[in-house]
Design goal:
1 helix, 4 strands
Length: 80
């Protein structure tokens, strides 16, 4: 494990985590925020009706990504 930038310590010291990411109430939200950022950077658009639905349209196909808890459904239609 690497120290965050700006944290200094001696080589003989050990760092102790006060909280783990798993089990925190914010963990699912943090994961979804990171996922959304990556998906939107890949030209997907979030649905206005369902925040867990993303779509991307091109001339040849349409791609739908739907998230449900820890599962992802990917639907691709060619030649619509």
């Amino acid at each position: 494990m690497n120290q965050p930038p700006g944290v200094s310590h001696k080589s003989c010291e050990v760092c102790r985590l006060q909280k783990a990411l798993y089990g925190l109430k914010q963990a699912p939200h943090a994961w979804f925020q990171k996922f959304s950022t990556v998906i939107v950077s890949l030209s997907f658009v979030a649905s206005h009706h369902d925040s867990a639905l993303f779509f991307r349209k091109t001339n040849a196909r349409q791609i739908l990504l739907s998230l449900y808890v820890d599962d992802m459904i990917i639907i691709i239609s060619d030649g619509f």
